[in-house]
Amino acid sequence: MELLSKKIVMGRDIGIHGNLFGGILMAWIDEAAAAYATEFCYTPNMVTVKVGELTFKKPLKAGQHLRIYGEIDKLGKTSITLNLEARKYSLYSGEETLVCSTSITFVRIDDDGSPTAIGETVKRNYLNTKLLQN
After folding, report:
1. Positive/negative CA dihedral, 121, 124, 126, 132
2. Other Cβ atoms closer than 10 A to 41
3. b/e for 64-87, b at 16 or more Cβ within 10 A?
4. Which DSSP letter does residue 94 get?
5. What is the CB-side half-sphere exposure of residue 91 using CA atoms within 13 A?
6. Which CATH number applies to 2-133?
7. Distance from the CA of 94 to the CA of which of 3, 6, 52, 58 falls in 20 to 30 A?
8. Could you report the per-residue pLDDT of 27-64, keeping only the tens digit for each?
9. Nearest 5°: CA angle at 54, between 15 and 96?
10. For residue 108, what pLDDT is reported?
11. DSSP-derived 3-state class of residue 132
């Protein structure tokens, strides 16, 4: 997986139980994934259409560091699906602990909001990436 984003949990991000508010983490994951999807597909016209199950495995406290990783799961005619992981990062040891994982699907849209095809260059890049991984 590729590192997409780094965050520091701030006091303003904490919920009533003293942990990172889940909605904030969900927004950070969506933002990191959207940035990756739009860059990979060479277009700002991508919208989130589906988020997979998101189970919070570990809490995060103020001052802790978070890293968000992602990889392409599949590329369709108009859509791209990413697998994502959020991991707590220890500054002292460099150890990472899985906080949550999910998948997100984005669809490329035109000016009217209708799905439109992802370009052939993107598809070739995706296939080349897959070949290099094998």
Report:
1. negative
2. 23
3. bebbbbbebeebeebbbbbbbbbb
4. -
5. 6
6. 3.10.129.10
7. 52
8. 999 999 999 999 999 999 999 999 999 999 999 999 99
9. 80
10. 97
11. helix
pTM of the model: 0.91
Alpha carbons 80 and 118: distance in angstroms, whole number: 9
Could you give the 3-state DSSP secondary structure of residue 130? Answer: helix
**pLDDT of residue 134 exceeding 80:** no
CA distances from 73 to 50, 56, 83, 126, 127 (A): 14, 21, 6, 10, 12
H/E run at residue 101: strand 96-108
Query: d(Cα 76, Cα 46) in Å, to the nearest integer?
Result: 13
Burial label, 43 (beta-carbon count in 10 A; 0-12, 13-18, 19+)? middle
Q: β-strands 65-75, 79-89: how paired? A: antiparallel
Is the CB of residue 55 less than 8 Å from the CB of residue 66? Answer: no
